[in-house]
Design goal:
Elements (H helix, E strand, L loop, with lengths): L31 H5 L12 E5 L8 H8 L4 E5 L13 H14 L6 E4 L11 H21 L3 E4 L2 E2 L5 H18 L4 E5 L7 E2 L3 H10 L6 E6 H6 L9 H12 L5 E6 L1 E2 L10 E2 L8 H8 L8 E4 L9 H10 L4
Parallel strand pairs: 1-2, 1-12, 2-3, 4-6, 6-8, 8-9, 9-12
Antiparallel strand pairs: 5-7, 10-11
Helix pairs in contact: 2-3, 4-5, 5-6
Length: about 325
């Protein structure tokens, strides 16, 4: 499951009464309503760039407005339709309006992380699917370049009956090809939940892809908290976030970490199900997100929500909750 599309409708935000569960699925000692009470996101967490995946409906520049409306300091977005392999070229005037809106509202390109189309499978052993995926990756990086964006996030791919090694070979082949065609844009690999034949659920698999990418300065990783938990990384336990980051540093290297997708998990630890839940309401629990908000190794990178949202607890409220967890 990926990010929900959202519009940019303005509204007054009231802090919600929030229920949540700990990593074991039981209520924790401190409710997130208590965490939020009396605290505003603008006074703390200055080095944390929290935002959400927002809609481009009405024009790609609308994503900037939508992010401002929910109090985001970073954001994710799609760069075109998710329904078709072939998409109209990016309108140059729209690209200019997008860049102007980013400057106007103070969004640095390093805090904007476009999300790749779910149609892509750069690890597919089927030549037609691989060919279309590779061409779409080139198109996505080209759109980033036109928009003045510096990085692009994608799900690595699925082996679909081939070996993991062969899948990693093809993913890197597609990335190397796209890098030859489009300058400067960094390709950011997202860790996966391990569902089906997807590759990238384990850090060693992300390292395997990175090892095959020729220009190491143009590859990075986005850690999705739900995916990591579903893949077996227990960030819900005390010290779990630090342990995961230490393992990531040992296996991949923290210098490759470019972003985090902030999602609680409907599924239990190691379930391999990609099922996002609202912050503090899933199996990961609020304590882990407190640790994330106070982890200095996650400063100054985009921290982007892709949660389902429910009435009274949508992106704006969850962003406020997360900022309230910051201790300084």
């Amino acid at each position: 499951m990926g990010p929900r599309k959202r519009g940019g409708k303005k509204r007054t935000v009231d802090l919600p009464e929030v229920e949540h569960s700990s990593g074991a699925g039981e209520p924790s000692e401190e409710s997130s309503a208590e965490v939020v009470k009396g605290k505003r996101c603008k006074t703390k967490g200055g080095k944390k760039y929290i935002g959400a995946h927002v809609s481009i409906a009405g024009g790609i520049w609308k994503a900037v407005e939508a992010s401002v409306d929910i109090g985001g300091r970073s954001f994710g977005l799609f760069l075109g339709s998710q329904r078709s392999w072939k998409r109209p070229a990016l309108d140059k005037d729209a690209a200019v309006r997008f860049q102007e809106a980013c400057v106007q509202h103070g969004f640095d390109p390093t805090h904007i992380l476009p999300h790749g189309s779910y149609l892509m499978n750069c690890g597919s052993p089927k030549e037609d699917v691989f060919g279309k995926s590779q061409a779409m990756l080139v198109d996505e990086l080209s759109r980033c370049n036109t928009l003045g964006l510096t990085q692009f996030n994608l799900h690595p791919g699925a082996s679909m009956g081939s070996s993991t090694e062969q899948c990693m070979d093809r993913i890197a082949q597609a990335i190397n090809h796209a890098h030859q065609q489009i300058p400067t844009v960094i390709t950011v690999l997202e860790n996966m939940s391990g569902q089906g034949s997807t590759v990238g659920g384990q850090f060693i698999e992300l390292k395997g892809i990175i090892d095959r990418v020729r220009d190491k300065t143009r590859v990075g990783v986005c850690l999705d908290t739900c995916h990591a938990f579903a893949a077996g990384y227990d960030i819900s336990s005390a010290g779990g976030v630090k342990s995961m980051l230490e393992e990531f540093d040992l296996v991949v290297g923290l210098h490759y970490l470019r972003a985090v997708h902030l999602n609680d998990s409907k599924g239990k630890l190691g379930c391999h199900l990609d099922r996002h839940e609202d912050i503090g309401r899933g199996q990961i629990g609020i304590s882990a997100f407190r640790d994330i908000m106070n982890e200095p190794r996650l400063d100054n990178i985009p921290l982007i929500l892709e949660t389902p949202g429910c009435a009274g607890f949508e992106y704006a409220e969850q962003i406020q909750l997360l900022y309230s967890l910051c201790e300084d």
